[in-house]
Amino acid sequence: MQKSSIYWLSVSILFVFLSCSSNTTEQEKNAPKPTAQEKLKSSNTLDTADYERRMAYISNGDTTGTWPVKTPYPLPGAIFPYNRVIAYYGNLYSKKMGILGELPKDEMLAKLKGEIKQWEAADSTIPVKAALHYVAVTAQTNGGKQRMRMPSHQIDSIVNWAKEIDALVFLDIQVGWSTLEEEIPALEKYLKMPQVHLGIDPEFSMKFGDLPGTRIGTFDATDINYAIRYLDTLTRNNNLPPKVLVVHRFTQGMVTNAAQIKPMATVQVVIDMDGWGDRILKRSTWLRYIQKDPVQFGGFKIFYKNDLKKGAGILYTPAELMKFTPHPIYIQYQ
User: Fold this and answer.
1) 254-291 pLDDT tens trace
2) CATH no. for residue 124?
């Protein structure tokens, strides 16, 4: 081949290469920029400095050294502390169990969106994520194990409703005379979904043979750690983002040996202050069982009706709860 032919062939190849490079650059330039959460999910490593800064923020100036709690760093894709979750709680069989079930779907979702706007106004620092917290196993006063599992079509409805507003789903378990070892695996097909998380309610864990509702039940750290290990295995085996475990609490005895609860990189633990009553009572319950007895993250429940019984006054507002130490990162409305 003559030198001139070689020269023009080289020029042509270079032109094609530059054209392709130019097109790729234009496509990259015009592509939507990933959000911080998307970057986190796509990364194999966690920005630990950013995580610690966010944890310090939600600790709200704690000077006792209690908050933030020293736990393993989460794997990428974790919900907390990158989001605040606002959840509606209830069951579709009962209008008395919570706002989820009390109102028609569209009215309920619209009301939830209204609460989210208030939280966004109270704290623009943390993105707010909606959630539907559905009691999938309810304690009963009859039946062999004093509990009833909800039919799959109901859980499917909740999952589909959540998709309409890009919400998370929490499936809550009231074991009655059953156990977490028996009830959690029964929900595995749902817990394999990346947007579905778990709640467990010690109030209805009747370890001593009492009927649900006749006394307050209990879970020990060993029970809660079983749930954590189960979710850890499920998450790792199915390549899922970290799960959240919500544990309800409003008395000392509901959660025994809380200091021995072991969150993992794959499982984030929220202790949800579940008591109802006037504002003074709720704040004192928060101080005793959340602020002074830390596990990992703090949650706060608001009862639309029960918190107003006996002339209790008005409900806590998002702005008022933002003054709590630590900040509630999971807020549940019932």
Assistant:
1) 999 999 999 999 999 999 999 888 899 999 999 999 99
2) 3.20.20
Number of domains in the chain: 1
Instruction: Output 14-22 pairs: Cβ under 8 A, ≥24 positions apart.
Output: none
Neighbours of 63 (CB within 10 A): 8
280: in domain: yes
Is 192 a member of any domain? yes
Report if residue 90 sits inside a domain: yes
Rounded-to-integer distance, Cα 222 and Cα 47, Å: 31
Amino acid at 39: K
* CA separation for the pair 219, 184 (Å, rounded): 14
d(CA 333, CA 316): 11
**Is the entire prediction scored with pTM above 0.90?**
no
275-308 per-residue burial string, b: 16 or more CB within 10 A, e: under 16 = bbbeeeebbebbeebbbeebbbbbbbbbbeeebe
* Mean pLDDT over each residue of the chain, to the nearest integer: 89
| CA angle (262 as vertex; 207, 60 as ends), nearest 5 | 110
pLDDT band at 312 (very low <50, low <70, confident <90, very high): low
Q: Which domain holds residue 219?
A: 46-333
Q: Which residue has the tokens 């054209």?
A: 19
